[in-house]
Amino acid sequence: MASVTCKISQSVVDDVKKLRFSTPSQTSSSGSAATFKAYVAMINSEQTVVKEELDDVTDFDSLVDELPDHSPRYIIVSYKKVHPDQRVSFPLVFIYYCPETAAPQQRMLYASTQQLFEAENKLGKSLLLQKKEELTQKWLDDSKF
């Protein structure tokens, strides 16, 4: 059995579950229909995965602005995706954000906890992001998850 480096806060598991089961018709804090939702988690000094408190993140650009330049994060995104046949879906995508400039210790800590985070939150679609500027709806749509 693999050793566990970090633990996942129960509040993170509960928050991800709420995100998974929220409906697109629920409104955002601005009052408009929510077509984009993001949840960002980080590992704190007690080696526990906790929610990172961000300003109002309403789209990909505002999420990119909030991400740190030199520290990994776990990101879960739900967004409106229109398929070529005009079907609409709201995929729940897990993104392991690990910038190339992050300290090796942080990279190893997040990498060693990634599988546990995915398993505890029942996440199936997983992507690696190294340059936050690449995080766009087109990048997600082009990813074959």
TrEMBL record:
Xref: Pfam families: Cofilin_ADF
GO cellular component: cortical actin cytoskeleton; nucleus
GO terms of biological process kind: actin filament debranching; negative regulation of Arp2/3 complex-mediated actin nucleation
Localization: Cytoplasm; Nucleus
Residue ranges of every copy of the ADF-H domain listed in the record: 3-145
Organism domain of life: Eukaryota
One function term, GO molecular function aspect: Arp2/3 complex binding
UniProt KW keywords: Cytoplasm, Nucleus
Main location: cytoplasm
Family from the record: Belongs to the actin-binding proteins ADF family. GMF subfamily.
PANTHER family: GLIA MATURATION FACTOR, GLIAL FACTOR NATURATION FACTOR
Protein name: ADF-H domain-containing protein
Species of origin: Coemansia interrupta
